Amino acid sequence: MTGQAGVDSPARAAAPATWATRVGWRRLPEAVRATLPLWCASRLGIVLLSLAAARVTVQTRLADVPSFTDLWDRWDVGLFTKVARWGYVSPHYNDHTEVDFPFFPLAIRVVQLFVRDWIIAGQIVVFLAGAVAVAALWRLAADDAAARGTAGNPRFAVLALIFAPYAVFLFAGYSEAMFLAFATTAWLAASRDRWWLAGLLAAGAAGTRITGIPLWCGLAVQYVVARRAAGLPVFARPALALALPPLPILGFLWYLHGRTGHWNAYTAAMREGWNRWTDWPWDGWRTTWDYAFPGPDGSTTFTWFWRAELAAVVLGFVVTILHLRARRWGEAAFVGAATLMMSATNYYASGVRTMLVAFPVYLLLARAAARWRWVAPAYLWLCGPIMAAFVVAFTQGQWVD
């Protein structure tokens, strides 16, 4: 029968293909279709915001307004670019870039072969990695809701990441987006009991940022919990996959030893370049508190930066406790280990970017938004303007983190 369900009519068969059909849009995974337009729109918004801010805030001739690449060539972007161009311990520069893990600069170097501009190459890597990260985050949130038997709000998990106060580092040429792509896909693979894939992806995260060590801890705990829940032995062949994440770190230390002759090249660079070393968390808290609240005669230049670092550590501990109460042991191990790592130094720094890539935070927010309708609008109205302000500050050369 013509027009019967399941049978194409002649008119339908002759209908012209839509744009979505031509590009195979419907063949893409659901998570990609749900997040890619949102991710692209948010990136376009940041481009327009940065360009508009440059023309509004810079009082000069239009010909002297900074270019797009000048706006985004700030702070550590230059350090990653130097590593991508010349490698570590190079005569071309004096910065202690040994503290930057190698996978992100390597990705920049590969992409630069095709686009030539180093800043744009880094942003392309960040864009692609971010697209993967938001799709994986959406899938994790959707699976989490399905496991709890609720409708869930996976879209808000993605929005919470995009509108996070420090989400500027998911557009600039920093390593956070690439780490987040590896971390979320590793966790997704682990949730499907694909431990060798999870271990390989976690190795990618460990080769991108030092936060890969807490991720490894979280995956190890998640493995034990999953195996015991399934009634399977913990000591089995899949456990060998957990040996993969440390390999890039060990390889990087071995490489630095070959370049410098020292096994402690990473910690030495941290001490010499940034005056940082391992210390008790309470000592780091005391020092950072003094910077954050210097009194009426103190400098206000970095006051809010230090206060944000204190808040990041507090947030990390709160999120860890909430996950422990919910018996989400793997997520608690990841966030808890990351919080301990960023607080066990002589002063706190880069903690806000550590929490930016702590994806269990966004899954927690999605669960809260599904339970309380006010959470999503309150978060977006509060964090959205802060994120926009930090985009302007970053592109104008003001210290953000």
Can you offer a commentary on this structure?
This protein has a domain at 38-259 and 373-395. Mean pLDDT is 90; it is low at 1-15. With 401 residues, it is an all-alpha fold. It has 19 helices and no strands.
Task: For the structure shown, list the relevant keywords.
401 residues; mainly alpha; 19 helices; 0% strand; globular; disordered N terminus
Structure described in brief:
With 401 residues, the protein is mainly α.
Radius of gyration (Å): 23 Å
Shape: globular
Low-confidence stretches: 1-15
The chain-level mean pLDDT equals: 90
Distance, first to last CA: 66 Å
Helix content: 55-70%
The total strand number stands at: 0
**How many H/I helical runs?**
19
N-to-C series of helices and strands: HHHHHHHHHHHHHHHHHHH
Report the structural category. mainly alpha
The percentage of residues in β strands lies in under 5%
Largest sheet: none
Outline the secondary-structure elements.
Layout: H1 10-14, H2 19-22, H3 30-57, H4 68-72, H5 76-86, H6 103-115, H7 118-148, H8 154-162, H9 176-191, H10 195-206, H11 212-229, H12 246-260, H13 265-274, H14 281-292, H15 303-325, H16 329-343, H17 351-356, H18 360-371, H19 375-395
Helix pairs in contact: 3-7, 3-8, 3-19, 5-6, 6-7, 7-8, 7-9, 7-18, 8-18, 9-10, 9-11, 10-11, 11-16, 14-15, 15-16
